């Protein structure tokens, strides 16, 4: 438990620092939106390419990872839709609860993978992302289309996935690794420096995006969504890993991903496709705060049952 707390403490400390400096007006509100674009379109893709080009990707059981992710998303979607059918929320509110219950925070996930499991864990995390990101985006758009009747268009969704910089980075990094080409030393030295900036700045941006005022204005939906994402999902993943995953490292990374708070980008999708954006902001904030307690618990005690 102490090792896990030691690894996770800097991650959540940087989130808190990000929130504190944003509240203090430093370095100014105009800084954060360009910073998030820099992180998403440059720093994180470079980090993934750099680490994956050097990692032992061939040791990652891609079939096991894909099966575990697909089963988790299918189970989570079925559960949330069933509860909505039995005890319905307003449709716009349900879309936010669904995103809160299903999506994961990439910045926290990559930082935790690197801190807890090193480069091997980061390679597994990249494969998890390569499977999970497209499926989750497709599921979320389908849910919005059904519950808000606001069409996004399948072609536009597919194009967005193809252009997703994190997916592109995973494909490039794995291709460089498997082909044996690797990353030329001149590029690797620069990528190494940029990679060192990616995780700290990403975590500061997560903290800067916290919205405590939105959290104070909402009630049970935040608790409902957080219980599904932060407690039920790890239980489902523990069951799935026990049945289908042989590698302990892979199972641990999958458990860690299942325990992550929801994605900060869920707010953008809620605003664009007619969801409850204020509730989404509250869920994002609430889950990040709650996960500071639940993630160490899950990672300390759940692996004992594998």
TrEMBL record:
Gene3D superfamilies linked: 1.20.1530.20
Q: Which domain of life is it from?
A: Bacteria
Q: Name one GO biological process term.
A: transmembrane transport
How is it placed in the membrane, per its record? Multi-pass membrane protein
Subcellular location as annotated: Cell membrane
Which ranges does the record mark as transmembrane?
39-58, 65-86, 122-147, 154-179, 185-210, 222-245, 251-270, 282-305
- Keyword Transmembrane among UniProt keywords: yes
Task: Report keywords, A-Z.
Answer: Cell membrane, Membrane, Transmembrane, Transmembrane helix, Transport
User: What is a single cellular component term in the Gene Ontology annotation?
Assistant: plasma membrane
The record's section on InterPro entries has: Mem_transp_PIN-like (IPR004776), Na+/solute_symporter_sf (IPR038770)
Q: Could you say which protein family the record assigns here?
A: Belongs to the auxin efflux carrier (TC 2.A.69) family.
Q: Enumerate the PANTHER family for this protein.
A: AUXIN EFFLUX CARRIER FAMILY PROTEIN
Descriptive protein name: Auxin efflux carrier
**Organism from which the protein derives:** Amphritea japonica ATCC BAA-1530
